[in-house]
Amino acid sequence: MTRFLDRYDERELLGLFEEVGVAETLRGRGFGDFEVAIAEAGLALPHVRYYATKDGRRHCLLDSCVRRIAVDAERLPDSNIALDRPLDLLLVHWVREEDPTRAFSVSRPPLPLQEHPGLGILRRAFRIAVQMARDLGSDGVVNRAKFFHDALLFERSRLFLFLDGAEQGRFEALRRDLASLSLRDATLAIAGSCVRDESGDVIHWDPGYLVFPLSERLTAHFHSAGYAAAVAKGQRGAHFRVDLEALGQVCAQLGPSRPASAQ
């Protein structure tokens, strides 16, 4: 029998989706006959896929890839804590949740890589990752956000912070300076090389780990004076500007939606 993370079989995973309320939410939207499959064939890492039926058709509603990683103490340069062993973290390497029965609208165009609108169940599904991390005795749950909007959604929850304090500070400055743009346009601005830093250089999205801490020692890192000082310094020293003309060209290539601040 295949076990995800060498612990959970498909029946146990299906039970976790029930426990956190994902199935209940989706039943209210007309889905039923839920199933979890652990997919390995042809994949570098196992995927957990969540299926359901609506109006007689079968759909994959969530696809995720999660693995355990170890992070050395040297990755915590601004911390005041000493680690006697590497951090044991559960990395959410990939996750996609979508509703194939719905279409995008002019007012809600797709974000990069979106094929269908979201289901709005990511927060509930995240509780499964947290439960897994606790079961495994991990120090926390981490993610490397593929796009700016992914990082912003994680950070807005106030559950995730960048492991590196200086990076957290620069991210907060980026969020501040792009606040006039919609979520989609801010992401497109960065992905389309339309954002420059205080030196005039184009910024490229290459984020470190966003972390939801569980253990006392990892929580202590984020509460340390060294981390707070690094965040403040990173935020004060970073300034960004958007080339709205270039962003308009990027958006024009993708559809009719234009950056709000350029209209």
Structure description:
This protein has 263 residues and is an alpha+beta fold. The chain has one domain. 36% of the residues lie in helices and 21% in strands. It contains nine helices and nine strands. The strands form two sheets. The chain has a seven-stranded mixed sheet with strand order 1-2-3-4-5-8-6. Strands 7-9 form a two-stranded antiparallel sheet. Helix 5 (165-177) runs parallel beside helix 8 (225-237). It starts with 9 loop residues before the first helix and ends in a 9-residue tail after the last helix. Mean pLDDT is 88; it is low at 257-263.
Question: What would you say about this model in short?
Answer:
By secondary structure, the protein is α+β, with helices and mostly antiparallel strands. It is built from 9 helices and 9 strands.
Order of adjacent strands in the largest pleated sheet: 1-2-3-4-5-8-6
Q: Which range does the strand content fall in?
A: 15-25%
Portion in helices: 25-40%
Q: How many separate helices?
A: 9
Q: Please provide the ordered H/E string of secondary-structure elements.
A: HHEEEEHEHEHHEEHHEH
Shape: flat
Mean pLDDT: 88
Poorly predicted runs are 257-263
Radius of gyration: 20 Å
End-to-end distance: 57 Å
Structural classification: alpha+beta
Count of the separate structural domains: 1
What is the number of strand segments?
9
Largest sheet: 7 strands, mixed
